[in-house]
């Protein structure tokens, strides 16, 4: 059963990658998760940058993205 995690900013239901990326870029213990749109806004980068990051972390074999 998957946890329902919502974006703290816009309330959108989050995908696993978005949750993992929030943990990776904010804090692994964070209780605040963002969708890609809001995370890009929060960090001050583009959504494409975040997609690249997700790809990068997956290639590194980061366990959060499994
Ligand atoms: Zn959001």
Structure annotation, total helices: 3
Helical percent range?
40-55%
Q: What is the mean pLDDT?
A: 94
Whole-Å distance between the termini? Answer: 16 Å
Overall geometric form: globular
Class derived from helix and strand content: mainly alpha
Protein architecture, described:
This protein is mainly alpha-helical and 66 residues long. It has helices spanning 16-25, 36-43, 47-60. Helix 2 crosses helix 3. It is globular. The mean pLDDT is 94. Bound molecules: zinc ion (ZN). Zinc ion binds next to helix 2. Zinc ion (ZN) binds at residues 7, 9-10, 12, 34-35, 37-38.
Write a short abstract of this structure.
By secondary structure, this protein is an all-alpha fold.
How is the topology of this model organized?
Blueprint: H1 16-25, H2 36-43, H3 47-60
Helix pairs in contact: 2-3
Bound molecules: zinc ion.
Kindly list the characteristics that best describe this protein.
48% helix, mainly alpha, single chain, 0% strand, 66 residues, binds zinc ion
């Amino acid at each position: 059963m998957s946890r329902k995690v919502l974006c703290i900013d816009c309330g959108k239901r989050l995908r696993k990658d978005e949750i993992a990326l929030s943990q990776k870029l904010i804090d692994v213990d964070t209780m605040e998760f963002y969708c890609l749109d809001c995370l890009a806004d929060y960090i001050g980068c583009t959504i494409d940058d975040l997609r690249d990051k997700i790809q990068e972390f997956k290639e590194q074999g980061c366990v959060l993205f499994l």
